[in-house]
């Protein structure tokens, strides 16, 4: 597994409808890519967003990162949407799992 964590803050006064449309389009496109496993996003009370995507391999995640449509939308994000962001990646993260048995 290859994990990508995208931590970001949006600029004030962005075009929220345009951002939502781009985000939905990118999520649908990512889900169709070879090696895609999962995606979830979380927004904190202070507006910070954490987006987690899981990929089958580092190569699959890199291919998504360099997909032409994704690259164009990344550029638009830097120009129009994001105040700042940090991207974290991890190959084969140490994983612990707990699941309560159903009664």
Number of helices: 3
Q: What is the overall pLDDT average?
A: 96
Order of secondary-structure elements: EHEEHHE
**Overall body shape:** globular
Low-confidence sequence ranges = none
Provide the structure class: alpha+beta
Beta strands, count: 4
**Radius of gyration using CA atoms only:** 15 Å
Give the neighbour order of strands across the main sheet: 2-3-1-4
Q: What percentage of amino acids are in beta strands?
A: 25-35%
* First-last Cα distance: 31 Å
What is the helix fraction of residues, given as a range? 25-40%
Give the biggest beta sheet: 4 strands, antiparallel
Structure, described:
- There is one protein chain.
- 37% of the residues lie in helices and 33% in strands.
- It is of the alpha+beta class and 103 residues long.
- It has a four-stranded antiparallel β-sheet.
- α1 packs antiparallel against α3 (68-81).
- The longest helix is centred in the N-terminal third of the chain and has 16 residues, at 16-31.
- 5% of the residues are buried.
Topology readout:
Layout: E1 2-10, H1 16-31, E2 36-43, E3 49-55, H2 58-65, H3 68-81, E4 82-91
Antiparallel strand pairs: 1-3, 1-4, 2-3
Brief digest:
With 103 residues, the chain is an alpha+beta fold. The chain has 3 helices and 4 strands; from the N terminus they run βαββααβ.
Features:
103 residues, 4-stranded antiparallel β-sheet, alpha+beta
């Amino acid at each position: 597994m290859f994990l990508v964590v995208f931590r970001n803050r949006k600029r004030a006064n962005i075009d929220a409808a345009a951002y939502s449309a781009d985000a939905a389009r990118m999520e649908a496109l990512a889900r169709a890519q070879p090696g895609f496993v999962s995606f979830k996003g979380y927004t904190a009370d202070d507006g910070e967003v954490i987006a987690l995507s899981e990929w089958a391999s580092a190569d699959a995640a890199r291919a998504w990162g360099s997909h032409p449509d994704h690259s164009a939308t990344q550029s638009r994000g830097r120009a129009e949407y994001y105040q700042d962001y940090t991207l974290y990646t991890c190959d084969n993260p140490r994983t612990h799992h707990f699941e309560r048995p159903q009664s």
